[in-house]
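User: I'm curious whether this sequence folds into something compact or stays loose and floppy. Could you predict its structure so I can see for myself?
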Amino acid sequence: MGINPLKENILSRMEWPGSAHQLALFRILLGLQIFYSSSTRLFQLSAYVQVEAGTHNIFPDFLNQFITATAVPYWQWLTLALSIFLVLGLLTKYMLPLLFVAFLFLFSFYYARHNAPIPWLYIWFPLLLLNFTRCNDVLSLDALFRLQKPLTNLTSSTYRWPLEGVAGWLAYIYVTAGLAKLLPIYKGWNWLKGGTTQEIMYNRYLDSVYFYLFERPLFDYTTHHWVFAVLSIASILIELTCIMILLTHRFNGLVLVLVVGMHFFLYFAGVMGFLQLMLVLSISLIQPGFFNRLFKEGTQTS
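Assistant: Here's the prediction. I'll summarize afterward.
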C-alpha cells in the first residue's frame, strides 16, 4: 500500500488509537531525565564562577536577576523534588505546572552561562504538553490511590495526541538542525566540506570513548578530510529525514535507527549530551499497538 500523507500525517494520527501505558512510560522517563539533568553540579559551578555566555531569554531583567539569585539551591532542589513526583505520578495535575516553571527558570540560568540549550531544548515543550494530558491514568500513585480515574478505553486517542506532539517536536529539533547547517549557503558549504566535524572530533578526542578504549584516535584526525565530509553530509541527510515523521508513521523505525546511530557515533566521539535525551523522546516513535499488546490494554470493565 502506498503512503498517503493526507491520511497519515501527524495531525491525522492524533485522532488514532493510543496507549495509556505508553504515555505513562513517557512521563516516567521524562521525570527521570529531568532529575538526572537537574542534579548536575554544573549549577553550583555556574553560580560560583558567574560568567555570562552572552545569551538571552524571554524574561525581563528583574526576573533574570531573581532567577540568578535563587537558582542554586532553591530552583534546583524544587525541580529535583517535583521530578520525583512526576516519576511516581503523585498529585500529577497540581505538580506539573510547578515543575514546568521550576525547570524553565533553572535551565534559563544554565543556558545563560553555557550557551548550550541541551537539555532545555529537548524537554521544555514535552513537559508543557504533559500539563494537558492524562499521563497519570496508569502506572502512577494517583491511579493506585484512586486520585485519578482512568478512561474506560485505555486505547483512546486521548493518549495518542500528546505523543504525536512529542514526535513532532523531535522532528522540529532535527530538521531545523539540518537546515541550520545548510543556511546561509556559505555556511552550508563550509559544513559539507567537513571542517566543523573534523574540529569537533579533534577537540573532543580526550573526552571520547575511543580514547579510553584504545588510547589512540580511530585514524589521523588531521588528515583524511574526505571522511569528515562524508560524516557531515550523512548527518544532514539523517536530520532532514526526520521530516518524514510529520508526513507518515511508516518510517518511524528507520528514522529511529538512523538518529540513534548518529548519536551513538557522536557519543563515542565525545559529544555525549544528545543520545540519552533523544532516546527519551523516541518513545513517541514506537507504535501504540506494541504497548497495547504488552499491557493487554483495551476497554476496562470496572
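Summary: The mean pLDDT is 92. The radius of gyration is 21 Å.
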